[in-house]
């Protein structure tokens, strides 16, 4: 009897930690290691954030990488980053924020054995773009609730030696990369309309290092805004989020939004649009959902080639102002508790179990 070859996984990601893709890659590796599943890491100009989990960092940078005969190539990246030589054994974990995907991505998804996306919204986008439905599966993402939870102590943020928490009873936080899809200018417009002149409300802006907000100096002066642009480990990120009372996004589209999920894990009031991935795990029972309409996707440099010919969403300005104002009228305990319970349905452990089972289904048994 010929022994069945052992199934092994070679993992690829161009970023570990930091971004949405990077945080996903970090947690997938961590769960593979914890579960003692056969995995090696192959670096291709991979950027590893210095605050990455120590176990993952050690594995990626220092652990001896065993030889594998014919491993499954597990990617956490955009489809066009998969090398042609890996197509026949590739499984790609990816995401997008529009109602479909570009032709190049669809062609690649039809060639490789399996694409894994985090939401049914994404799966519909792949299928509507011509991808074989049997080649797309859904595995939700998660947050580490040992780090992001309601018991986290807030950062001691001060301005002119005055505590922000003491001065502003209502504190919104927005976390974003300064790209058009995140709709920063739209956020400022609605926030000014909702709260200009209020001395009990502030907006905490968590941006990336290097993001320039200089063009928005004048509108920022109309509200109590505080900019936090440092790259920090998850523990500090959780403390920053603990400083807030509300999470807000007016993004044109999201494939998941891990920051929103983290806000739910910390029992924050959430105000976001009722489109894309948000509609997957949020309802009017657990969040303040903003009305929106589908429109042609605008420019989103440096990623324009991915968005051309597709649609994203615009928020309804008046409804956004109404929802922002409504969200501060009470403590919203019922909504926060329901979102918290929803978040608990997901974990990286469950996600990796499902990923591993999908690999077994596609490529055969292992042990």
Structural commentary:
This protein is an alpha/beta fold and about 375 residues long. The protein is about 35% helix and about 20% strand. The two termini are about 15 Å apart. Helix 1 crosses helix 14.
Give me a quick take on this structure.
The chain has 367 residues and is an alpha/beta fold. The chain is 34% helix and 19% strand.
**Largest sheet: spatial strand order:** 3-1-5-6-7-8
Count of β-strands: 18
Work out the radius of gyration: 21 Å
Overall body shape: globular
Q: What does the main sheet amount to?
A: 6 strands, parallel
The number of distinct helices, counting runs of at least 4 residues, comes to 14
Strand residue percentage: 15-25%
Structural class: alpha/beta
Share in helix: 25-40%
The residue-averaged pLDDT reads: 90
> How far do the termini sit from each other?
15 Å
- Which regions contain 5 or more consecutive residues with pLDDT less than 50? 1-5
Task: Break the fold down into its secondary structure elements and pairings.
Elements: E1 9-12, E2 15-16, H1 20-34, E3 39-41, E4 47-48, H2 54-61, E5 72-76, E6 90-93, H3 103-111, E7 114-117, H4 120-128, E8 136-138, E9 158-159, E10 162-163, H5 164-167, E11 170-175, H6 184-195, E12 201-206, H7 217-220, E13 225-228, H8 234-242, E14 246-248, H9 258-265, E15 269-273, H10 278-281, E16 288-290, E17 292-296, H11 304-307, E18 311-315, H12 317-327, H13 333-343, H14 348-363
Parallel strand pairs: 1-3, 1-5, 2-4, 5-6, 6-7, 7-8, 11-12, 11-14, 12-13, 14-15, 15-16
Antiparallel strand pairs: 9-10, 17-18
Helix pairs in contact: 1-14, 6-12, 9-13
